[in-house]
Design a protein that fits this description.
The complex is a heterotrimer of chains A (about 650), B (about 90) and C (about 140). Chain B is an all-alpha fold and about 90 residues long. Chain B is built from three helices and no strands. Chain C is of the alpha/beta class. In chain C, about 25% of the residues lie in helices and about 35% in strands. Classes of the chains: A alpha+beta (about 650), B mainly alpha (about 90), C alpha/beta (about 140).
């Protein structure tokens, strides 16, 4: 069966290559039938990739250890769900997933637009084909999931820390995001090559970009929650290169989603939009390169793999291609209308772009720093957390402010007086809130205080907008239903504000202490009483060998009640691991987070206790983000009619 | 053996799909319905113009844009919408 | 359009470039000032001050991270030959720490021993081959 998988991938490679080459020739020479043939090849590529994927999936489920990949990443006692999850648990399988999603997106986009946008699709086909050619080439020649061997008795198994529901959802979601960004990129490149750089390509790809962005964003929140409850150091984001690899394209895509609104309405920022969409795509592939190549020191360790070189080459080639295209079409892209005032909605979008790109590049600099210093200074140096936190505040806080000002400021030109008049309620609310917060002790952290005040400002602007709109329409539901893009966007903004409050609260205002307790002793932290009752020793045998769980039973008093367990598990095979104890106070949205740091010879235990205010707003924000994105994606009645008409036309 | 057969099926299906356009009359398979496409483009333009007008009216009604600015901005938008509607009418007549 | 457009652009360009320049200077200053060397056992020697050390734990692990004697183990380059660096670690032991694990330590050289109070282990990779394979 491995032969079938290998053959299917070779067919995928051939089809992708044909789509790329024949598609290019057809576009240049305006050969309709050849263009259709190339387009069919792209669709067929998805078909053969599905075959390859099914072969691997079946091998995983059946524990067919003659597949090297199956033997390396699963074992006989692995349940079916986690055996399937091992599909993307390793290098070759995750590459196959990438190709599957890429060819799937490609097939769908060209099928839905069979009779429309032909001037653009005729170039989208070879571009997507080229991307698919690269990935299928890697799968055929460099990292094949279908290598075979004499089957061993049992496989190596999936790392226990990866056997949880997060592993089922987090990587596929991120891939739907990363790979989805190639659709707007392909359309943008097609627009530039064909010379049709008006907003048609933006209107055509809006939902694709939104969908990819939504998956990428929610996937990251899932990852953060996973880290928070599983890895157990009390945090949810470590500015690790692999985490940054997902954040950077998401930031660029966020800037792009906003910036295109200006192009749609005013025909401005067109060069910016080309740069932003290319940047989003390149950062997504570059992020994949970082993750796989082992070139950067990360807490997620990776082998130094030859694949890195190929990916780097791919990133460089596609970047040069994008730059060349933009430079070539610069005259076409130049705006027809000029920015009239630094105090206008167009200008706020420009500032938005600048801040997002600045934040993106800051993070990129931090990620590349060890490599650059090792090459240019001869010695590798690494940048720590304070650098990222500093620049997150410098760029993030103004972005927060813009989120409130942008929707209320007028197009073309506004005066300072008019702006202050429009913003009088938000400003007032922010000042009052600021005063109240200082009185409540929030002045202990200046960035935290500023973040909170800005959040109140933005939330008030959203409320003002909703109130004004409801007054004019009569019903809130009708208001949102009739203006889905705008109010769906406001819901997403509200999610971002909640997220910012959650992050500010749980970082700037958290309490983090170490207490040594003997059984029977207790300690008070922030209104909680934590009493160490007893230690239970629980031995067990699992697929990860023998282990002993040292479970500390704690009794809570004060703000919380009942017991809380926190454990240190010692596994013969894997070493120590922590199961942290988290008690969530839903009313206050805060967490009491206890880690069993170590046990001393005299029977006392060192606990690390954190109180994280408002941390659960982050997870709530994730769901609101999802909801807001879906509202924005959902077509209203008129749009539905138009989409149905387009679909009918596509079917012919 | 099954692998061989399935593999052959995949390869043959691929070849068939790719060569399909060459066997049909180019006017029949997936030929662009120029009229329908043009109509959709015009409808897109009309929808965009009407949406911009609707947004302006809405912002004016909720007080975000004052009367002076409204009067300044509404003219060009109304013209764009009228042109788009005219375009659709004309195409229907053709 | 035309002439008025051209006289406005240079001002904006200058502002943009100035902002970019200030930012670049700022970034370089912060990054160089706020960074620390990222080393392996093979190039650790001679570095005074705080550094970040990455390596693989080899040999026996002795002692207790909570006691004054500290947790004692030896570090080797992750790949390739290198000298062995003895490490004394005091503090919370991170998840999955054991012989054979790749770790990252923050600390400094005290004589020929590396002293550290902050350690992270690398998650056993999804993308490396299994420990039993011969690659």
């Amino acid at each position: 069966m491995a032969d079938l998988g290998r053959a299917a991938l070779v067919v995928s490679f051939g089809l992708a290559l044909y789509a790329a080459c024949a598609g290019t020739y057809a576009a240049l020479q305006k050969r309709n039938r050849l263009a259709d043939s190339a387009r069919n090849a792209l669709v067929a590529c998805f078909g053969s990739t599905i075959v390859a994927a099914i072969v691997l999936a079946l091998a995983l489920v059946h524990h067919d250890f003659s597949f090297v990949y199956v033997a390396n990443h699963t074992s006989r006692d692995l349940s079916t769900i986690y055996a399937l999850t091992a599909f993307w648990g390793g290098q070759e399988g995750s590459l196959l997933l990438w190709l599957l999603v890429l060819s799937g997106y490609g097939a769908l986009v060209v099928l839905l637009n069979r009779k429309l946008l032909r001037d653009l699709i005729v170039w989208v086909v070879p571009i997507m084909g080229t991307l698919a050619t690269f990935f299928s080439f890697i799968l055929v020649a460099v990292a094949s999931p279908f290598k075979t061997q004499v089957p061993p008795l049992d496989g190596a198994g999936l790392t226990p820390s990866l056997q949880n529901p997060y592993m089922v959802a987090h990587p596929p979601m991120l891939y739907l995001g990363y790979v989805g960004l190639s659709v707007p990129f392909a359309f943008a490149a097609a627009a530039m090559i064909s010379g049709h750089t008006d907003e048609r390509w933006i209107v055509a790809t809006r939902r694709w970009t939104l969908t990819a962005w939504m998956f990428l964003g929610f996937g990251q929140i899932l990852g953060a929650h996973w880290a928070y409850i599983e890895v157990g150091w009390g945090g949810y984001y470590g500015w690790d290169p692999v985490e940054n690899a997902a954040l950077m394209p998401w930031l660029a895509a966020t800037a792009f989603l906003h910036s295109v609104m200006v192009q749609e309405r005013k025909g401005m920022l067109r060069v910016w939009n080309m740069i932003l969409v290319a940047l989003s795509f390149e950062l997504a592939v570059f992020g994949d390169f970082l993750t796989r190549s082992g070139v950067v020191n990360s807490i997620h360790s990776f082998a130094q793999s030859p694949i890195g070189g190929w990916f780097l080459g791919f990133v460089v080639a596609t970047s040069l291609f994008s730059v060349a295209l933009i430079l070539w079409r610069l005259p076409l892209l130049r705006a027809r209308t000029k920015l009239e005032s630094a105090l206008s909605r167009e200008a706020t979008f420009l500032y938005n772009n600048l801040l997002f790109v600045a934040l993106c590049l800051t993070i990129l600099w931090g990620v590349l720093f060890p490599i650059l210093t090792s090459v240019f200074l001869g010695e590798s140096r690494t940048i720590g957390r304070p650098y990222y936190d500093f620049f997150l505040r410098i760029f993030g806080l103004p972005l927060l402010l813009l989120m409130g000002i942008g929707p209320l400021i007028a197009w073309r030109r506004s005066s300072a007086r008019a702006l202050l008049k429009t913003l009088r309620w938000p400003i007032l609310a922010a000042l009052i809130a600021g005063g109240g917060l200082i009185a409540a002790g929030a002045g202990s952290s200046h960035p935290g205080l500023i973040a909170y005040t800005f959040c109140v400002f933005v939330l008030t602007t959203i409320v003002v907008e909703l109130v004004r709109g409801t007054r004019a329409t009569g019903s809130l539901l009708q208001l949102v239903a009739r203006n889905r893009r705008r109010y769906g966007g406001y819901v997403v903004h509200a999610a971002v504000v909640l997220f910012a409050i959650g992050v500010a609260g749980s970082s700037a205002y958290q309490t983090n202490v170490e207490r040594t307790l003997k059984p029977g002793q207790s300690t008070r932290i922030d209104g909680y009483t934590v009493s160490y009752k007893q230690m239970q020793k629980i031995p067990s045998v699992s697929e990860s060998g023998r282990q002993v769980e040292d479970r500390a039973v704690l009794a809570l008093g004060g703000r919380a009640h009942g017991t809380l367990d926190t454990s240190l598990i010692n596994s013969s095979l894997l070493g120590p691991s922590h199961e942290v104890g988290i008690r969530t106070d839903y009313l206050r949205a805060q967490d009491l987070y206890v880690i069993l740091s170590q046990q001393n010879a005299d029977g006392s235990v060192i606990f690390q206790i954190l109180v994280k205010p408002l941390v659960n707003l982050i997870w709530l924000a994730g769901f609101i983000f999802l909801g807001g994105s879906l509202i924005t994606l959902w077509p209203d009645a008129r749009e539905q009619r138009r989409l149905v008409a387009r679909l009918a036309l596509a079917r012919g | 053996m099954t692998a061989l057969i399935l593999g052959a099926i995949v390869a043959v299906a691929a070849v068939v799909l790719v060569s399909l356009p060459f066997f049909a009359d180019s006017d029949v398979i997936d030929a662009p319905d120029e009229r329908a496409e043009r109509r959709l483009e015009l409808m897109d333009a009309r929808d965009r113009a009407l949406a911009a007008l609707k947004e302006l009216e809405f912002d004016h009604r909720t007080g975000k844009i004052d009367d002076v600015d409204y009067r300044r901005l509404v003219g060009p938008l109304r013209r764009a919408a009228a042109e788009a509607l005219q375009g659709i009418d004309q195409q229907a007549k053709e | 359009m035309g002439v008025t457009g051209r006289t406005r652009s240079p001002a904006r360009l200058v502002v943009a470039l100035a902002v970019a320049g200030v930012l670049a200077v700022f970034l370089i200053y912060t990054a160089v000032g706020g960074s620390e060397p990222l080393l392996q056992p093979s190039n650790l020697a001679g570095h005074n001050g705080n550094v970040s050390l990455t390596g693989k734990v080899v040999g026996k692990v002795k002692g207790d991270a909570g006691s004054t004697g500290g947790l004692r183990f030896t570090l080797h380059n992750i790949q390739g030959a290198s000298i062995l660096v003895p490490v004394v670690y005091r503090g919370a032991v991170p998840d999955l720490f054991k012989t054979g694990r790749e770790v990252n330590l923050n600390g400094h050289l005290n004589g020929s021993t590396f002293v550290s109070t902050s350690m992270t282990t690398k998650c056993p990779s999804k993308y490396t081959t299994a420990p039993n394979s011969t690659e």
